[in-house]
Amino acid sequence: MASPRIKFPHVKRYKLFIFWATLILAFTEIHQFGPRYLLECWILPNLFFDTNIMAQSSLKQYLRSLRWTPLPVGVGLALIAFQQYRHTRKREAARLGQADPCDCLADEWEVQAYKLLPLRQFSKAWGWVNGLELPEWSRKSVLGLYVRTFGCDMAEAEVEDLGKYKCLSELFRRSLKDGVRPIDPSAAVVSPADGKVMSFGMVNCGALDQVKGVSYSLRKFLGPNCWNAGGPMVVTKRDDDDCFHRTCLKDGENNALYQCVVYLSPGDYHRFHSCADWKVDFRRHFPGELLSVNPSIAAWVRNLFVLNERASYVGQWKYGFFSMTAVGATNVGSIQVYFDEELKTNDVIRNKSVFHDKHFDDRLVELSRGRAFGEFNLGSTIVLVFEAPKGTVPCVEVGQRVRMGQALFRIPHSYVGMTLDETVHQGTQR
């Protein structure tokens, strides 16, 4: 079922034209260097004309006399390096508390320019390369280079011998030995994957934390509310995030919304699992972009998770609303969910501004903590948004490394499956 288009802020086209024209022209001529040439090419465009033609009345002849001089490649590289240096300085100042994190965010025209890159095509090409079968004699050296580069722990893999993996994609999606990821029996919500916690905590006024100091809209992230009692979409004020926030709560008096973002790096275990005991009602697929979700990019691009392709699975658990969203990224256009074979990601045919819903009314999808949910092709992000009693205790910190099955949140007076002598718990777990 297709739903209304998602509208994004208008960006002046001339800024994008200037940006990309500068970069394209910067790389068109490499053979011309020298002080005089550099001085002549600092201004874009550099127009040369004959003063005698200016005196002529023929505008046509005057226009024909104009010629464009491209910037040298050095100037283009210097421009890119300067932009990167400026953003690095801002991020460092924000980390030290000397600047507001919002000051480090990219301008709209920069984000639009970033989106113009052929990231979807590049991701498809990368997926094709990953699926190429390697000659048996080269597997240990090629795959071993990847393992050493990203620090993969092959001792935990069900198949430790690199020679048994036919391609890089099989290594990404490797399974683990039984028992190496025990599920915390006391936590109502456990980590769905190995990775790093980018943000966590209570959702306030319909805003989710992308990283510390940078937030995005829950309403834009999940789309229109159609999960209340399985009814039609709840229409709220277009810009009222707080109103949308309240429609997600089953018990607004005693409960609150909580969220947690887990980032999977290229070296992590690439499968993800159910983080709680819950029932999935429907899936909402947003085609979107495939921008990088690396923490440094997440701290630079506003509304990154709203822009990117994602598959949101929404349902109910003991305390009310529950959702788990797999976010795509550069080189991670392929998101596979084991119980949803119809999900097709990184599909250029689909309109990126329209989301698509699928309801699971015909069959029951009940998930328990730790049950296999799906897999990424390289590494990406899982976003959890759920309803729980007020006073729910987080068990992690921002920047902490977690493993699948480790406790994320504990609910007061709820010990899930523990005995009475095991009901005393500490705070953060390492």
TrEMBL record:
Gene Ontology MF terms in the entry: phosphatidylserine decarboxylase activity
Leader sequence residues: none
Post-translational modifications: Is synthesized initially as an inactive proenzyme. Formation of the active enzyme involves a self-maturation process in which the active site pyruvoyl group is generated from an internal serine residue via an autocatalytic post-translational modification. Two non-identical subunits are generated from the proenzyme in this reaction, and the pyruvate is formed at the N-terminus of the alpha chain, which is derived from the carboxyl end of the proenzyme.
Protein's pathway: Phospholipid metabolism; phosphatidylethanolamine biosynthesis; phosphatidylethanolamine from CDP-diacylglycerol: step 2/2; Lipid metabolism
Reaction equation(s) it catalyzes: a 1,2-diacyl-sn-glycero-3-phospho-L-serine + H(+) = a 1,2-diacyl-sn-glycero-3-phosphoethanolamine + CO2
Keyword hit for Repeat: no
One GO BP: phosphatidylethanolamine biosynthetic process
E.C. numbers: 4.1.1.65
InterPro entries, A to Z: PS_Dcarbxylase (IPR003817), PSD-B (IPR033177), PSD_type1_euk (IPR033661)
Pfam families: PS_Dcarbxylase (PF02666)
Function: Catalyzes the formation of phosphatidylethanolamine (PtdEtn) from phosphatidylserine (PtdSer). Plays a central role in phospholipid metabolism and in the interorganelle trafficking of phosphatidylserine. May be involved in lipid droplet biogenesis at the endoplasmic reticulum membrane.
Entry protein name: Phosphatidylserine decarboxylase proenzyme, mitochondrial
Organism from which the protein derives: Chionoecetes opilio (Atlantic snow crab)
Gene designation: PISD_1
